[in-house]
Write a structure and sequence with these properties.
Two copies of one chain form a homodimer.
Chain A lengths: L5 E2 L2 E4 L2 E2 H8 L4 E4 L1 H14 L5 E5 L6 H8 L4 E4 L2 H9 L7 E3 L6 H10 L2 E4 L2 H14 L4 E7 L9 E2 L9 E2 L3 H10 L3 E7 L2 E2 L4 H19 L8 E3 L17 H18 L4 E6 L1 H4 L3 E13 L2 E6 L7 H4 L12 E3 L9 E6 L8 E8 L7 E4 L21 E4 L1
Parallel strand pairs in A: 4-22, 5-6, 5-15, 6-7, 7-8, 8-9, 9-11, 9-12, 12-14, 14-15, 17-19
Antiparallel strand pairs in A: 1-2, 2-3, 4-16, 10-13, 16-17, 16-21, 18-21, 19-20
Helix pairs in contact in A: 5-6, 8-9
Chain lengths: ~400, ~400
């Protein structure tokens, strides 16, 4: 993990030595997200991508309010997955014009909130049309909608498949023409399409192929649309490396491919913007989870570093967030970065369960009580995606530095 | 699931028809725990077990404060896993004399709180001895301790293995004699042993074998103890059935076996009480998770019931709480209990992830928007063990009825 500098053997996060940062936070465990890295990641992406491609932050990856506010200032829009996220996005300064709301089970009250807020709703079910029409009439406001399409293909090699086959997400591509007719009949304000084929993909060619298929599908569906397409959200799927042997995603092939799609879009769907919706890719590498060694135990020849953090704060690192086979996230002793790995240690948390595992039999420097354990690649799907109340331990703190 | 009555096709929980209960709660999703079932489970166990065997509630299974208070009135003691749980147990009326505190990474402040509260600390590391001695001196109070032993055997066929081999839990059996010497030298008040070999086991003979091995090990270790053994906590491990084909645990063989152990204990360790520490077994079957159908979708021939509840409230039912292979928890349409299963449906939640699954391709009656989906066997490791903040949906409510 080269994104965080090391000075005098100590990891620097947000420009601060880790131990000083821990003192500033006042307690462990904590998550820290580095503003400079967040900004650098967005800038790198902007520099590579065609200028006309719009960049959205999918805040489900990390809904920490301060971070959402910061990201809202860097990207072109924010994608939310619930009314709760909508509130955080708006509080954080996101412009309602550039907020979109997706989710397979939007409650009636949430749909009404979305209309009142003036954000774009990605319709995922015919049921939503009636609720939105009613809300629009009651509020005297347009119901801005796009159609989330469940494509008839999938993003190959994804961590999660979000499209292809029977799915609760979106509307099956073959049902979309009929749905577009219903949208027109209900008087909703149609703006475009949203296609999201998969997530956490490290293969540029697979992402390009899915983007191409998404574009072609949207182009076919646009012929049935009640209004010109203004928004064509191609989803995300850009992965980050977590495990040994994984390489960072190659941006250039995607950028080249998007430039060609953008040129087609300008000809074939004039007035439409291509949008990428990225969560993990924008924030995942900018965050660390930090906990403190509470005990060092040797049981039957195996070294255990028992920390004050664990699966209750970081379910994904424990291997219980959808992983089929558990692999170690990158882990280090943050105040001994120059020390050689001289022993094999297992890093666990304070919970009375063998699931509470942060690193299993990993080569590490000899850590002592009080040392700071760092779990890298923790900026996405960390604090908010973990069972914080499990076993009644203190909540973890999140800081943006 | 026969523990909840059905009246006029509607499930009754806590003596109330489910739809009325939902109205009383005021919203979905919610967990409901049935007092009568909790009481019946404890009574059934008491009736089967030798009267002298003490029954503890391991509140990690369900830390809802009202439930902990209710359970404290039914059992002989409460086992806590953190200072946070300790507070809830004491608030709930548990007597400090009958509270014990286990956990592999107790922080210094937690150990001090335990001494101040006067509860029994299960020592899991030599480090804790010094901290406890210091706390005892500072507070002018005895530090009551037992030794949590990592046995040299495991509970075969368990959902989770908590003992045998290298483990972060407890002190390796072979290191215990030396540790007992340190406890004596530090002037701590020794009371006994705690052995916990595994959890969620449905094989009575495996539980009996582990209890027997635990007893024999404790008897050998007692020869090194600085004071007579008063508490011999044999752990738990009693499972409940979740999946098709699983049978309820046979209590009688365990009761017979414990009666024999109790007789030995009276001869060989006079003054010692055998204790069972049960969590899931006491509360798991008394609870349901209830959510409402928000949408009914058919995608490429497959029926999806999209509900307002999901993995953010019930990680275990989604198959992401340590399960290697996901299997469906028992699920029903709570207001259509008399209707025949006439279709195969997949029940999902509102989250934008394929992990958000409550039942996959399950035969169910034809459910409609507004119907109440019930997940049974949800009284343990439900609300507290789930990533409640994920995607910003409303928190679920818990009620004791």
């Amino acid at each position: 993990m080269t994104q965080f500098p090391i000075v005098d053997g100590e990891l620097q996060v947000g420009g601060l030595p880790l131990r000083r940062l821990a003192e500033r936070v006042g307690r462990t465990p904590f998550y820290a997200y580095d503003r400079a890295l967040l900004r650098a990641q967005v800038n790198e992406l902007r520099a590579a991508l065609p200028a006309a491609v719009r960049l959205h932050y999918a805040m489900k990856a990390n809904p920490m309010p301060a971070l959402v506010g910061f990201m809202a200032g860097l990207v072109d829009g924010v994608d939310v997955a619930s009314a709760g996220e909508l509130k955080v996005a708006l509080d954080g300064g996101a412009s309602p014009a550039e907020v979109s709301f997706a989710g397979p089970g939007k409650r009636d009250a949430e749909l009404r909130q979305a209309v009142a807020a003036g954000v774009l709703v990605n319709i995922e079910s015919a049921r939503e049309i009636g609720v939105l029409a009613q809300a629009a009439a009651a509020l005297g406001m347009p119901a801005r909608v796009a159609v989330r399409v469940n494509p008839d293909f999938e993003l190959k090699g994804s961590g999660m498949r979000m499209g292809g086959g029977p799915k609760p997400f979106g509307v099956d591509a073959e049902q979309v023409p009929d749905l577009l007719g219903q949208i027109a009949a209900a008087g909703l304000s149609f703006e475009g399409f949203h296609l999201f084929a998969g997530s956490q993909n490290l293969r540029a060619e697979a992402i390009c192929a899915a983007q191409c298929q998404s574009y072609e599908l949207a182009l076919r569906l646009a012929a049935h649309a009640p209004a010109p397409v203004r928004v064509l959200n191609l989803g995300g799927g850009f992965g980050i490396p977590y495990f040994p042997g994984e390489q960072r995603l190659a941006l250039q092939p995607i950028a080249d491919h998007l430039a060609a799609l953008q040129a087609r879009c300008e000809r074939e769907l004039p007035g439409a913007s291509l949008t990428l919706e990225l969560g993990r890719y924008l924030v995942g590498e900018a965050g660390v989870y930090v906990c403190r060694v509470v005990d060092r135990k040797i049981s039957r020849g195996q070294v255990f570093l028992v920390t004050d953090g664990g699966m209750h704060h970081h379910l994904a690192a424990s291997g219980n967030f959808g992983q089929v086979v558990r692999r170690n996230y990158p882990v280090a002793v943050g105040n001994r970065m120059d020390a050689a790995a001289c022993e094999t240690a297992t890093v666990v948390g304070p919970l009375c369960t063998p699931l509470d595992l942060l690193a299993e039999r990993m080569p590490l420097p000899e850590a002592q009580v009080g040392d700071l354990i760092v779990v890298f690649q923790s900026g996405a799907y960390g604090a908010s995606a973990s069972p914080a109340a499990f076993l009644g331990h203190p909540a973890c703190v999140e800081v943006l530095v």
